[in-house]
Batch of 3 targets.
Target 1
Amino acid sequence: MYHIPDFEGPFREELVNFINHKRSLGYDYGKGMVCRLAEMNRFLIAHELTDIRIPKAIYLSYIQLKDKESTSTQEKRYTAIHGFANFLILRNYPDVYDIENPVLKRDSFSPYIYSEVEITSIFYCADRYKTERKPSMYDNNRMMPVLLRLLYSTGMRISEALSLRLGDMDVEKGLISILDGKNHVGRNIVVSASMRCVLENYIRTRNSFGAEEYLFHGYDGRAYTYDTVRLAFHRILDNAGIQRRPSGKYPRLHDLRHLFSIKALEQMAEKGYDLYTSLPILCKYLGHKSITETEYYIRLTQCRFVQLTNASSKYAPNLFPDLEVQAV
């Protein structure tokens, strides 16, 4: 656990309380966030605050986008001061300003939603993917068909899939344990019968498979890397005839997670579940820390799934605001 520094100024005690509070709730308040809070504290001190208060003008000045700065960096500053300000408000400090998310502008982004024909073509090309075997390389021929099916059928993050070890799996029961997912949220994933067969066949053909070995590893036992997977996936997309997007970038592996989310919600809607029931279930399955993250996934794909959009209007009328939808 990254150490908490000796903060200066009027916020020094409450910053320590805030970090300890977040850590007690299971949040990963490590070096990155601690350094961000220290930067924020220096900014507040520089504005001559001598007591515990955060005026509106100082708050907005801190989160203002700087020249040649990415919005992701701006968002990190907002996350720091928003969390701390909310903590101070809950502790009854009267002169603390806070605002909900004026920085993050995600509505213009649209994930690539693969069609059924495209998914079929991707698996067809993955099954026929060939690379030259070298001692220093990965077995893309064998791993990519399994990895892509795992991502498609479970909605698992690519980082979680590449971190899997054989000991994390009970293949006979079709159960996968994600021990340390994003934000340190652990969960169990149940796979379908067809995916269980794929995993069984894959594991049976591998040699020297111990409980601590990675499920997806190279000839020398090292873990399969994201960059290797991404490059192989791009070649598979090319072979499948799936073109780059107007931005010039390929559709992402992460878009399979969006597709899984939408399909899962559609299936539950067809079975009569309302979103009050299905969204919390999907939230836990995906490893989200809040239902807002899950709502974000379906917000992005409103133009492609009319049934789900109609169902959401009963759950939350403002979930899909009037937006100019970008073409996928």
Note: The two ends are 42 Å apart (CA to CA).
Target 2
Amino acid sequence: MFWPNGLLKAPEACDDEDMNAVVGNEGTSGPDGNLRAILTWLLEGDPSIRWHVLADLVGASQDEIDAERAHVAAQGWGARLLAAQSADGRWADALYSPKWTSTTYTLLLLHWLGLQRGHPQAVAGCRQVWDGARFYDGGLTLAKTIRQPETCITAMLILLASSFGLEDDRLDPAVRWLCDQQLADGGWNCESIRSGSRHGSFNTSISALDALLQYQQSGGELRVSDSMDRGRTFFLEHRLCRSHRTGEVVNAAFTRFPFPPQWHFDVLRGLEHFRAAGAAADPRLGDAVDVIRRARRTDGTWPVHRAYPGRTWFRMEPAGPSRWATLRALRVLQWWDQDHQAHLTNSRSGID
């Protein structure tokens, strides 16, 4: 699919079957009729966008994906973030606050951009936050006002160490502690230690699930699949974003999906977890998928959503169509539609 200079062939060269693989069963009428232009537009973006497109939407070879991903550290947003790091390995001279320029949240953004595992600046930053955290028999906290282990912060540090390859003897105890904090309903809640809350929080639960998945995918030795299965069941029983009591969407903010998500849950982030985990496209996620479909603009892209309040290093996207939202929505819909098509085909073939 690539010209000799390493650039993606013009999407016009893709046949209809290739197009359907990107957008599922919706065909090429309506917004999907712009698919070729959308792919071209995505591939004109930052390296962090391009390598994800190559990996998730056009099926490039691993060598081509890795070559593009390497540019995250040298060009664009990733390079700008790395250039802002201090000589001691921190960002903004802070470990956790201010949001969103502290070391923890800058590393989270670099993780989402796809900075490659083992990058020395990321490892140095991870070392700063792990060594600066207070450690309580497995649990960690970086918050100055919280004097107990903090579930969300522990999850973030597990994710960062696993993503960037920090070797630390405290990692496995932190993972055990995080699994032990799982509540009877399958979720996690930062308030369970501080106030005794026994119902899972959507925000805390997605952070915990993402951390455990990253730990598993990075080769972690502890078995975490049972905890993840229970955590995903928590979301399925809530149809991803609905109250178990009223059936209403818990928070209207869940139907927005700014990038980066920071510590927040939203329906796109939730669906991304199910996709990344290779989970089945459970029908109970259908309402959330419909939210994503309805958010699509008439030109086939998805819009920029207002960022969470707080200081940032720079603004990645102006108001209007969002490459991040479009990339993320397309690959979630691809996963959803392909899984449903496979299920339909199997049903017609009599395969259980």
Note: The CA atoms of residues 52 and 126 lie 23 Å apart.
Target 3
Amino acid sequence: MPRPARRILAAAAAFFVLSLVVCTHAVPSAAASAASAASAPAAFAIVAIDSLRGEWGAAAVSRWIAVGARSIEARASAGAWSALELPDPREAALLLVRMSRGVSARAALDSLLAQDPRHAERQIAIVDRVGTTASFTGDRCPLWAGQLSGRGYVCQGVALPGEEALKAMGKVFESATGTLAERLLAAVESAESVFPVREEVESAAILVVREGGGPNGWSDRLVDLRVDQAQDAVQELKSVYAAHAATFLPAAYARLGDEEKRRGDSISAEREYARAEAEFRAAIARRPKDAAALNELAWFLATHDRDMEEAVQLAKSAVSTQPRDPILYDTLAEAEYRSGSLTRAIEAMERAVKYSGGEARYTERLARWMRERAALEGKGSSKP
């Protein structure tokens, strides 16, 4: 474990949207220098929106531990919040509630600051439900403190040598491609390359929310990852995100595509399906012989009518790797059935029943297919 940090540095969070002109703000040096100490924690952050996908997010990096636990928050259909100096989760909750009701970012923040006796010590950035941003850096924040704003995002930093790290963050965020999470990660990595926050201890975090984006659609947390203490927290966060993208995101995008399809938006549905398929294939590229990765793509292709022949082949490859796994035989059975082979589907499902010890979910489907085959045979025809 790294030794405890002798100096503490606060974090940074950032958010996404389209490219544009930026503006910067630096805290007046006289008041700030009186309030800042040599040991003031350095940090930077970004908050942003992806209006196309309906996602809001933030990312932050700090020389202090656990920046994700205190400095970033977001809520789907409301907005996102970052606070590097004197973060107050009660204020974050209040701002998000107000923005969820349609109050603009600027109006919500101004109202909050007007009632805050310690506003001069705070640094806050928010983006609202429609992508409007607002930010504030009090004149008692540690030098250098300031912000850079663009369309749909705000970058902030405290205790930095200047604004160069924020400029790098904004430039990369605007030019990066991919999902909001990928753009946020690219942004904080670029800031770290200009001014490494890491000393003996560093923390980093990313949060991206979307309606139904969490596991099983039970929350809005599409991405919620933290590295609370590491010597190079940004790179650790990237590694954790890669594992998250391989494990959870493909199924999430497939589910979100299903939701778009139910709403009748075939274009958005296909966009989500394409992203899901790309993530499934990336997982296989990382682990070509991993039965679970092969199985996930096979199930997705089969159940979304994308490529039945490949689905069958992937399912067979998964089974060959773990030949006594009922889940894998279940996928093979589904792929065979949807590709038009009822007989081979039944054969695969019989193995699923056998290796599961007769689980109901397998026996019920086997019985249904057996009845279907009997009906077909009674009419003098059968699927091969």
Note: The chain has two domains: 23-232, 307-384.
